[in-house]
Amino acid sequence: MCLQAACCNLSESFETNPSVDVSFTDAVTGTRQIMMLGLAGPYTQITRESIPDVRGFSAIYGLSYIPGPWIEGIQLIKGTGSVANGYESIAGQINVELRKPESMDKLFFNAYANEGGRLEANLNLQQDINNRWKTGLLLHASNNASKHDKNKDGFLDNPLSEQYIALNRWKFSSNNGLHFQAGVKGTYIDKIGGQLAFDLENDEGTTNAWGMHLQMKRLEGWTKIGKVNQAKPYQSIGFQLAGALHQQHSFFGLNKYELGQNSFYSNLLFQSIIGNTNHKYRAGFSFQYDDYKEELNNIIFDRLEYVPGVFFEYTYSYLTKFNIVAGLRTDYHNLFGMFVTPRLHVRYAPTKKTIIRLSGGRGQRTANIISENSGLLASSRQFIIHGNGSSNLYGLKPEIAWNYGISLTQHFTIDYRDGFVSIDFFRTEFDNQIIVDIDQNPQQVNFYNLNGKSFSNSFQAQVDYELIKRLDFRLAYRWYDVQSTINGVLRPKPLIAQHRAFINLAYQTRKYLTFDYTLNWHGNKRIPNTLTNPTEYRLEEQSPHFFMMNIQISKSWRKLFDVYLGVENVLNYTQDNPILSTNQPFSQYFDSSLIWGPVFGRKIYIGLRYKIK
Fold it and tell me: b/e per residue, 577-595, with b = 16+ CB within 10 A?
């Protein structure tokens, strides 16, 4: 997936995947966010090797904390995931596997540069200490020091930035079934954006020029210990531990936003069988601790959450034809009490080439309404929270939803070449949701508990086939119906395309010359209400549809050295007027958050990869 596109970090890894939408949060910070089943990124649980990773205050920016060259594989599940991974998954689960000491190359180097001024380098190193101990070091650095204003609106198209990430992991394996691994990771990100004339040292906190500064520091550590019963190989026990320290200092114009998060996670799992291997189960105990410190314009929203929980998951398998996974977990939240999370997944293969899947389950999460909507800080909107006056979770309730899905996969063979057709439909219904209302007043964003209906329907059809030898073809169409009760009226959620079509062609010659072509068609999106603004600051009720085209060519020598050249947004399509009131950025009409299309036009990039096995 990552080799088919520039893929500088996790948020850019889904450009060739029609199941995940990637968009920008605003026109100033350059932050990308993902969407699954018509629901924003925080509704998708993102784990690193089955340990919760991108969550809490990192739910939006955290996608950029995982460099693309570090990724070994990505597993994507639509709908609710396993109860063993927690209760937060609603729209889906994305599990990221990083390069591992036992399988990674001795040396891997990647360099990347684009015409926007972004420079990036990645270095992965592996070392065998002895027969049992192995270690891996992963390093990343990127920088963007070039100012660009292609649309001549006086604002940087992309922020100036520097980013440094380092990870060191260790793996121990014994002959008696004992396995141990541990890792530590540090992240530093610094971004400056806004008007071309903005100077960080002299203009912060003033109206001299509108500017944005975002500085993040994060330290993470984790360990896994597992033991397989040598006498009973089907029986094992595992223990996971993880912790994170996260700090962010930022301001957006006159909005000052400070936050910190200290998190701890543990998970104890036991796996065995009931009678024979057709009946498997795993059970365990988990504990999640989060200490949140948050301050917006001198208003403090601190809170402490801890959630112990127990779970049990039963798996029944009948040959390769039928599988059922039924899970149940019970958790106690210190702010909201006890709740139960049931989940069910069924797989049935009536023939060798036909697979039917069913799923259903409950998900619950506490929304960090400011950090998850930080793109709105790059505006003059007033943040209004309609809570109950309590300091717990802004005085709002947790978000609770049920997700149901069905999918059909049909494999086929035409002219000796294999392919498959897949069709799926998912529906998400919210018992409670935090409504982010930017329609009621274009100078406000109102947060309140759902009072009415909120749902998301998602349909997708996809065809994969090898058209001719070494030419892979993928065609997909996706339809969304996402509606919420906003200010008492059930209406489509804004800035979500109801229709999207996708084509991807990948061809490789016998001499390892690879061509990759992707075309995305995005349908119309509803734009939030701006009718009460002066005429010059009003937008149409719907965005136009548009096409996005990406091309990449790469050449490999002996599978050890690659050079790649690509073009993003070949058609040079950009959103007109992405920022309202650029001439008066401190007026009440300034807004850079109403983004429905690309801000930066055509972008050419080049890179190389080198490895020693």
Answer: ebbbbbeebeeebbbbbbb
